Amino acid sequence: MTDNADAHTRAAEKLIVALDFPTVSAAQNMTALLPDELRFLKIGLELIYAGGLPLAKTLAENGRQIFLDAKLSDIPNTVERATASAAKLGARFITVHGSDRKTLDAAVRGRGDSKMQLLAITVLTSIDANDLREQSISMSPAELVLTRARMAKDSGFDGVVASAQEAKSIRAELGPDFLIVTPGIRPAGVAAGDQARAVTPADAIAAGADYLVVGRPITAAPDPGEAARAIIAEIERAL
């Protein structure tokens, strides 16, 4: 019984629910519907601009793990100061666009000696090779993801946000301790929506992902708690 409970807890710890809502009250209502063992929540740009930063601080103070998906990208001085401010909120993770070394280095300086972990955005899961060509980038998504992951690790980042389609190569090259957080997760039978490189929870775990970010398959489900428990069960089986 203990082994089963431990396995369930480990699986639940790997699931991050995206609170992609336009108001704090909607996010709070969703949080109340989630299983007690599910402690990791993502607060992204939509909610940040709707008063989500105080919510992030409150949730962290109440024992939740917070993934602050801020996607920082600006001149180095601004990124450094923004990262330092975010560290005071008690977030576990914060994201920074991983497109250039100066931005990454600035975030590392801003993090200072706080326990907040830095994740580099490699290539958004809504982007495919055609989108990159429009930006005059000749690399494939997989090649660009790995290039940016290497740069992030060299700068002192704790991990990256990347599709599970690239997780295996990141894990093979950058080792077991480099975190891989995977968005674009869609359980079997669920529409991909705006995700160009979506995968199932089981496939993501098999590829080497440490954490899975799931939004609409849970938050738009008729019973969000049941949907979350089903994904936790799939993660548990995959582990």
Main features:
239 residues; 8 strands; 8-stranded parallel barrel; single chain; alpha/beta; 11 helices
Question: Helices and strands in order, then pairings?
Answer:
Elements: H1 2-13, E1 15-18, H2 24-33, E2 40-43, H3 45-61, E3 65-72, H4 76-87, E4 93-97, H5 101-111, E5 117-121, H6 129-134, H7 141-155, E6 159-161, H8 164-174, E7 179-182, H9 201-207, E8 211-214, H10 216-219, H11 224-238
Parallel strand pairs: 1-2, 1-8, 2-3, 3-4, 4-5, 5-6, 6-7, 7-8
Helix pairs in contact: 1-11, 4-5, 7-8, 8-9, 9-11
What does this structure look like?
By secondary structure, the protein is of the alpha/beta class. Helices cover 50% and strands 15% of the residues. It has eleven helices and eight strands. The chain has helices at 2-13, 24-33, 45-61, 76-87, 101-111, 129-134, 141-155, 164-174, 201-207, 216-219, 224-238, and strands at residues 15-18, 40-43, 65-72, 93-97, 117-121, 159-161, 179-182, 211-214. Strands 1-2-3-4-5-6-7-8 form an eight-stranded parallel β-barrel, surrounded by eight helices. Helix 4 links the parallel strand 3 (65-72) and strand 4. Helix 4 (76-87) runs parallel beside helix 5 (101-111). The chain is globular.
